[in-house]
Amino acid sequence: MPFIDSPVRIPVSGASLGLALLTLAGCDGQQSALAPAGTGAQSIATLFWWMAGGALAIWLVVMGIALYATQARPEAHSLRGARWLIIGGGIVFPVIVLTGLLIYGLMLMPQLSLSEKVALRVEVSGEQWWWRVRYRTEAGEAVELANEIRLPVGERVAFSLTSPDVIHSFWIPSLGGKVDMIPGRTNQLILEPTQTGTFRGACAEYCGTAHALMNFAVVVMPREAFDQWLAEQAEPAQQPAGELQQAGQQAFLANGCGACHQVRGTEADGAVGPDLTHVGSRLTLAAGTLPADVEAFKRWIGHSSAIKPDVKMPAFGMLPEAQLTAMAHYLKGLE
Ligand code: CUA
Asked: Residue 7: what pLDDT?
């Protein structure tokens, strides 16, 4: 039977090598645990490479033995050699490698959750399907925004994570590990960004239809710029500039948007949906689903449920085109 007699071949084709390199190229960028920009992510990435190295070592030994078995002549072998192979390769070697990795991983854990020297607290609640973000000013006043988190570089931040209804998982791969957001509980996550830049956060646990459409932008900036940004976020909303934005504000209030959304400084004081006081300054719209331009605002108001299935905000496509345009200009103007 030639099928059994044929020699073992290990396929190392150019195509598979290319595919592996292509996959690795995806490990870069603003949402990669392998391109760390925070102390937690750095520890996790180091642990990952050690684990990958350990797995590679075990794989090489196992494949070496398998290869040897296919080449060995079918005759009686020494019992001592066989025992050594089974006990050494099957028990001693994996136990040493796995115990080393376990100890190393356990040693990292206290360091990742150290809550000393926290410079900032941010409360984040996972909603269906967006992120409610709350900062506190020095006076203790709450500043609420949505789907965007800004952090000062080089400082430890404590996140208080919860959810009103379903379980989500809060994850900024470039900065650190992920933590579940569980209804009725507040979990804590400590992160310390080490590089300025814009990163991407995501929900890392299936939570419902629009699970893949709840992302957020994370901007790490120097302390001064951060303080200025937070002070701006604490301000009430800008007054509409010009007739178009004024008409947009009127349409916004007349169509009941204020029942769900807050725009501080106006009569819109809803708490169900995202706070829109400074929505025009955000980097994305609809929790990382759309760019934050006037056209996207218009599309979102008119077709929310087509863009994000199961979204709680009804689509307002029945409104006249001119009203949708005006509302989009008003919201984009809320910087
Ligand atoms: Cu929220 Cu998945």
From this structure: 42
Q: Does ligand 1 come within 6 angstroms of the Cβ of 181?
A: no
Structure tokens at 252: 């916004």
The two three-digit tokens of residue 196, written as one number: 């300025």
The protein residue with its alpha carbon nearest to ligand 1, atom 1, reads 168
Task: Give me the pLDDT at residue 68, please.
Answer: 86
Q: Which residue bears the tokens 């040693």?
A: 107
CB atoms within 10 A of CB 317: 14
pLDDT of residue 6: 43
Distances, alpha carbon 77 to alpha carbons 74, 83, 84, 91, 149, in Å: 9, 11, 12, 21, 65
Instruction: State the pLDDT at residue 213.
Output: 96
Q: Is 211 in the pocket of ligand 1 (CB under 6 A)?
A: yes
| Å from CA of 280 to ligand 1 middle | 24
Report which ligand 1 atom has the smallest distance to the Cα of 168.
1
Q: Which atom of ligand 1 is closest in space to residue 206's alpha carbon?
A: 2
**Residues in the chain with pLDDT values less than 50:** 1-11
Q: Ligand 1: does its nearest atom lie under 6 Å from the Cβ of 178?
A: no
